[in-house]
Design a protein that fits this description.
The chain is an alpha/beta fold. It is 19% helix and 28% strand. It contains 7 helices and 17 strands. The strands form 3 sheets. A 9-stranded mixed sheet has the order 2-1-17-16-14-3-12-13-15. It has a 6-stranded antiparallel barrel with strand order 5-6-7-10-9-8. Strands 4-11 form a two-stranded parallel sheet. A hairpin with a 3-residue loop joins strand 8 and strand 9. It is globular.
């Protein structure tokens, strides 16, 4: 299947550069995938519970975004460089995405805020470096000196508002370089409204990597290779999932990261608890096993996220809904509006 089939026209002014002034006030499109030809409905996030059947099990990704972007100074030349710390590899080593990668060679020493020195230890790929930090910092170092790693289509530096707004209100487990953006819409009040409506909640963790923003660059989508991400399914979530299935209740995934976790953990009868890694690539033709409904943002053209949602509700159906969203001036991408596909 050709990647160009997942392109669409998007005016630049619809790419949200800031969150809404107040969290939980974004617009909501409701798409009934099981009713072909039905027009999307339009509402607001605050009314989400009205469109979800009581008893539905909603599964959220509770990962927390690390302030992973650091700016360093070359100890020899004084030049400045940008490092995005992705994954701790043990013994003070971190895998980083770096700018001007060709100039960052093994043995270079970089001074970071707080007196931390990073030495480039290996070159695992063209744009990534293994960096050894001394002294070995803990999460408080990132919190004090790091910057929120906003996605590349947000054309501004991170600001104070992003420390809160590019983080879900239920974030608990630090490890992501990007937010599970569908979850950014929820407030304690909206979560309470779901509780009041008899909608059950459960949690998984998938640590989102920067590959989530990468467009599919191959001409045929089958030739694309997904990035690998770690996930964890608590036993309580596996049990809640089993009960919901036995009782004939719907499973609603909040965001594509929750979908990828659940589909990766599917064992033929339910979802297997515990930790794992996934590079699952979901595109049209995929048969969903673990998920019945999806709450998600509006995604970028030619992205694996758009392909996943297309697989869920049909490519033409989704692109028709996107054309309506453009005409209605919905806000797109991480800080944009949302869609419930049921």
């Amino acid at each position: 299947m050709r990647t160009s089939l997942f392109s669409f026209d998007l005016p630049e002014h619809l790419i949200a550069q800031h969150p809404t002034t107040v969290r939980g006030t974004s617009r909501l499109m409701i798409l009934d995938r099981l009713r072909p030809g039905s027009a999307p409905k339009h509402s607001h996030i605050s009314s989400l519970a009205e469109f979800i059947e009581p008893g539905t099990l909603m599964i959220f990704n509770d990962t927390r975004v690390r302030k992973a972007r650091m700016y360093g100074r070359n100890c020899e030349t004084g030049g400045k460089g940008e490092f995005l710390f992705l994954t701790p590899e043990g013994s003070g080593l971190w895998e980083c995405v770096v700018d001007k990668a060709k100039k960052k060679r093994v043995g270079q020493r970089w001074e970071f805020p707080g007196g931390v020195i990073g030495t480039i230890a290996a070159l695992p790929s063209t744009d990534r470096r293994l960096v050894s930090l001394e002294p070995r910092p803990d999460e408080s170092w990132f919190e004090e000196y790091g910057h929120i790693p906003l996605p590349p289509y947000v054309k501004r530096p991170d600001a104070a508002e992003d420390a809160k707004r590019y983080q879900t209100v239920y974030a608990r487990k630090t490890g992501s370089a990007a937010a599970p953006t569908a979850g950014l819409h929820f407030t304690p009040e909206i979560l309470s409204s779901l509780d009041d409506a008899g909608i059950e909640r459960a949690w998984v963790t998938l640590n989102v990597g920067t590959g989530t923003f990468a467009p599919v660059r191959t001409e045929e989508i089958e030739d694309h290779r997904m990035h690998r991400e770690s996930y964890d399914v608590p036993l309580e979530t596996s049990e809640a999932y089993r009960r919901a299935r036995e009782e004939g209740r719907k499973i609603l995934a909040v965001g594509t990261t929750a979908v990828r976790t659940l589909e990766s953990a599917w064992n033929g009868e339910g979802i297997t608890p515990g930790a794992g890694d996934t590079d699952i690539f979901i595109y049209p033709g995929y048969r969903f096993q673990a998920v019945d409904q999806l709450f998600t943002n509006f995604h970028t053209p030619n992205s694996s996220l758009l392909m996943l949602v297309s697989a869920f509700c049909g490519r033409e159906r989704l692109l028709d809904a996107y054309r309506i969203a453009v005409n209605e001036e919905y806000r797109f991408f991480s800080y944009g509006d949302a869609m419930l596909i049921r």
